[in-house]
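Hi there,

I know you've been waiting on this one. I reran it after we fixed the sequence typo, so this is the corrected version. Both the input and the resulting structure follow.
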Amino acid sequence: MTSAGVAQLKASLSEYFGRVKSGEEVVVTERGHAIARIVPISSFRSDSRPIENLVRLGILRRPQQSFGKKLLECLKPEDPEASVLRALRDERDESW
C-alpha cells in the first residue's frame, strides 16, 4: 500500500493510477491524515464472498451481537384506517 498527499497525487495522478491498475492500494492523505483510499475495482467485483470483502475493505463492520428472535417477533402497531399509508400517498402526490 502506498500513501500520497493530495498535491503529490494531483501532480502524479497517472503514476498512482498505474499502481492501482496493477493491484496496489493508494491512501490519500491531507496534512498527514488519511482521507481516502483508492483501490482497484477488482476489489469490489469479487462475488464469491461480498460481505467478507466489504469487511476487509473497512466499509462494513460485523455486529458485536445478534439481534435475536425477540426483534423479529415484535408486533406491528395496528392501523385499521390505513392512515399511515394514506399519509405516505398524500406526501408522494404533493411532491409530483
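Quick highlight: Residues 44 and 56 are 11 Å apart (CA to CA).

Best,
R. S.
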